[in-house]
Amino acid sequence: MTEEEIREAKPKRARKTTTRKSKKETEAESKETAEAPEPEKKPRARRAPRKSTEKKAEAQPAVTEEPKAAAAEPSVVAPAPAPVEEGHLAAAPLVTLKYRKGRSAYSHMGSFRKKAYRDALGKTEWERLIRWRKEETITPVEHPTRLDRARALGYKSKQGVILVRIKVRRGGLRKRKISKGRRARRKGILKITMNKNIQRIAEERVQRHYPNMEVLNSYAVGQDGMHKWFEVILVDPYNPSVLSDKNLNWLSDPAHSGRAHRGLTSAGKRGRGLRWKGKGAEKVRPSIRAHDRKGK
């Protein structure tokens, strides 16, 4: 089929025919609509007011349902707290520690002394100091306050090994007021400090109090504005359990007698400057007195 035959075969669309009105016809229609009377509007019927729900509630009698009895639950009675005797500490708050692989239990105990956990044990230490102030200057102790530090310094819970807590003053020397006359500048009372640290003084006082035992080491446990407290580890060098211990039997040698007075403890060596070697520590060895006390 050719293109002309295809066009003729398609159905043709019917065109819309619109007749236009003349101006006269449109003017006549507009006049008729203007002269026609408007239809009357009927008034809208008003709705009846709704009845309030309060009146309905008054009209109907109130019906109260009895509450159903709940299933009987087993009563759990909390145990009464144990009475706290005078002088005993209150329970310390629970503190979560960050566990790190490879750290021992003593390492976690030592972390409580750090600044991050000081607030958790602040009240406990405060209560300890209140009790310690009422005690004697030198008091035997059953268990170490800082177990991690005690074990690091050689403490063992066995016969022949004891712990003693001692209270020592803080600050410089306490010298008596002189009776002879002189200037205040020449009195030599204030601003006088010993060449020993306070921890060494504490160890020497404990050594004098227990002459049949040897001071192994000591560590600090607390302080306030006027005093410091130390726990001193004492060993009986001739106790059978100590003589059979390879880590402690060296104290039975007479060469180690009077360790605290000769500055052979850990605190004594620190006070003598033996923690340093090389440049700056030339006048420390063999002793401070050998170099006319120039090593400090």
Model description:
This protein has 296 residues and is of the alpha+beta class. It is 25% helix and 11% strand. It has a four-stranded antiparallel beta sheet, with helices on one face. The longest helix is centred in the N-terminal third of the chain and has 13 residues, at 23-35.
Topology readout:
Elements: H1 3-9, H2 23-35, H3 53-59, H4 105-110, H5 122-133, E1 138-141, H6 147-152, E2 161-169, H7 198-209, E3 214-223, E4 227-235, H8 240-243, H9 266-271
Radius of gyration: 50 Å
* Number of DSSP strand runs: 4
Poorly predicted runs of 5 or more residues? 73-79, 86-90
Helix residue percentage: 10-25%
Q: Note the beta-strand portion.
A: 5-15%
Please state the overall shape, judged from the principal axes of the Cα atoms: elongated
Summarize this structure briefly:
The chain has 296 residues and is an alpha+beta fold. It is built from 9 helices and 4 strands; from the N terminus they run H-H-H-H-H-E-H-E-H-E-E-H-H.
